[in-house]
Amino acid sequence: MDALIANARFHFHKQLFETNTLTLTSAGVASNADTSSRGSKAIARRIVDILVDEQHHAVSTVDKISGQTLGKQFETLTMDFLRETFPNLQNLRPGRWTILQLGNNNKLKTSDFAQYEHLAYLNELTTQNAQLAAALGNDYLVAPDVVIYRDLYEDSEINAAQCIVDGDVSKMADIRKANGGKPLLHASVSAKYTMRSDRAQNSRTEALNLIRNRKGHLPHIVVVTAEPMPNRLASLALGTGDIDCVYHFALYELIRAVKEVGSEDAVETLETLVQGKRLKDISDLPLDLAV
C-alpha cells in the first residue's frame, strides 16, 4: 500500500488491536459488540475476523475493560489517524492545522475558538446569576472529543505574493491575526466506540448546539464510530440538518460482515445508509474535511 490514507487506515486498525481497544472475551465476544444482541455479536465478531486476516495480527483476549477506557482509547486513535492524514492535504486545503483530543478534562473549550468565543462571556454571566443559569441551562457548553482548528495569519503571510490588506481594510476578518481574534474551529469530531441509543443522541445534541450557538462559519460536524449494528448507526446517521455524516472505522469490512452474517433488515438498512451517503468509511473523512 503506497497511498497515504490506505496506510493510515491500516495503521489505525493495527493500533486498535495493539492498544487492546478491539479485543475478544474468552467467550469470543468482540469489545464493540452488545452482549445482549445476537446480531451485534455476530457482526462484530465477523469484522474482527476479517481485520485479523487483513492485519495478520492476533487479537487479544480480555474479559473486563470499562466502556470509558475503550471510549478514550478510540478517541485517541481517531485523533492520531487525522493527524496522520489531514495535514498532508495542503494542496487541497492549505493552512496551519492543529488536531487535538479535547474532552471535558482539557483546558481548551469551544469558547476558545472565534465562532464560539461569546460563550465564555455567557458562561461568566450564568456563573454569577443563578436565575439566569436556571433560565438558560448549560446546553450551550460543548466539549467535542476531537477538534481541528486553523491558526490565524500574520499580515506578512497574507501579503506574501502581493499586497492584499493594509491598515484601512479587513479590520474584522477572522483569519487575520492582526485583528486579535481566536483560532478558527474547522471540525468537531465526536468519536463514539459504540452507539447505545443514549450516547448516539448525545452526538446529535452536541451538533445542534454547535449549529445554534455559532457566530460565523459553521465547522464540520462529524461522528466516527465502531458500532457494528446498522439499525443503531441509522439512529444517528439518517436524516439531515445536524451531523454532516457518520464515519465507520471499518465500513468495507462491515458491509462484508453484514452480508455474511446479518439479517435481511440489516443488509437493507446498511445499503440505505451507504447509498444515501449518510455512512462512509473513515478513509473518506480526511478528504471530506478538505472541503
TrEMBL record:
<dbReference type="InterPro" id="IPR011335">
    <property type="entry name" value="Restrct_endonuc-II-like"/>
</dbReference>
<dbReference type="InterPro" id="IPR037083">
    <property type="entry name" value="NgoMIV_sf"/>
</dbReference>
<dbReference type="InterPro" id="IPR015105">
    <property type="entry name" value="NgoMIV"/>
</dbReference>
<protein>
    <submittedName>
        <fullName>NgoMIV restriction enzyme</fullName>
    </submittedName>
</protein>
<keyword id="KW-0255">Endonuclease</keyword>
<dbReference type="Pfam" id="PF09015">
    <property type="entry name" value="NgoMIV_restric"/>
</dbReference>
<dbReference type="GO" id="GO:0009307">
    <property type="term" value="P:DNA restriction-modification system"/>
</dbReference>
<dbReference type="GO" id="GO:0009036">
    <property type="term" value="F:type II site-specific deoxyribonuclease activity"/>
</dbReference>
<keyword id="KW-0378">Hydrolase</keyword>
<keyword id="KW-0540">Nuclease</keyword>
